[in-house]
Every structure is written in structure tokens, then in C-alpha cells.
Amino acid sequence: MKRPTAPHAEVLIETPQWRAALGNIDQFVQRICSTTQRYSGIFSEGATGPSFVFSDNRHVQQLNARFRGKNKPTNVLTFEPLSSLHGGDIVMAYQTMQKEAAIAGKTLRAHTAHLIVHGLLHLAGHDHHHPGEARQMETLETFILRRMGFPDPWRQRPRRST
Prior knowledge:
Collagenase (Catalytic Domain); 11% strand
């Protein structure tokens, strides 16, 4: 049985640094959605695509405080669909993600791809509250990312000393 194709994702760029760092963000997001669909079947027939907001720490901190009760920025927030007509939302904070990528010795592009796949899997019902769930989700993330030419996101690379 053929899996449905990934629906078109809406992309909103609130913070210009994202465009400078990632180039054609819409194409980047669509490729990740399509590859995630190909290997995990996260979208059902007729599903609406998710919305992606490429934002900054200030905006993500406001959302995190309002919806999670944590008054601090975080890398990404995933919001479940409000109805079957909506595909959910994934909101990313530029400064936090850039800092995490640098600390881990990864490119911002690879780190962003990982967190997009991670968010998509959350929207599809995957979770990581228990060790078995976490291992399964991490394995699927790694598999999908490697198919797109990205390294294992769970392997930390040592930082170069200067």
C-alpha cells in the first residue's frame, strides 16, 4: 500500500537570521516533511500540513510561559492540531537553537532538520516519556535524518579547542 504524500507545510519566518542561516527555508521544510512521510507515514490521506514558525527566543519564551508555565526560552515548541482541519504548529527559537548547535558541534542546518523531524513525529503521536519510547523515537529520527544526508543527531561531537 502506498503511503500518502506529505501535505504542503506552511512556513512563517519571523526572524531574518533564519533565512541567512538556512537559505530556502520553505524548500528545506518541504523536503524534511516528505522524507519523514516516506519513512514513517505520519500523515494520513487528506491531512493538512503543519505550520512552522521560525522565530526568536523572546517569542518562544512568551509561548512557553503561556502554554507550559515555563518562563524561559526553549529550542522548539510543538502544538497539537486544534482540529482535523489544522496540522499542528512547530515554533523554533533561533538563538537557542544556534547556541545548542554550536555546543554540540553541529551545523544549525543539521540541528534544525533534527528538531523538525522530532516535532513532526510528536505531531504524529510519537513520544519519549519512557525509555522504550525514547529509544524508538530516536532510532526513527536518526534513520530519517541519515536518509537526508545528516549525521546521527544523538552523537555528540567534541568541540575543537583553539
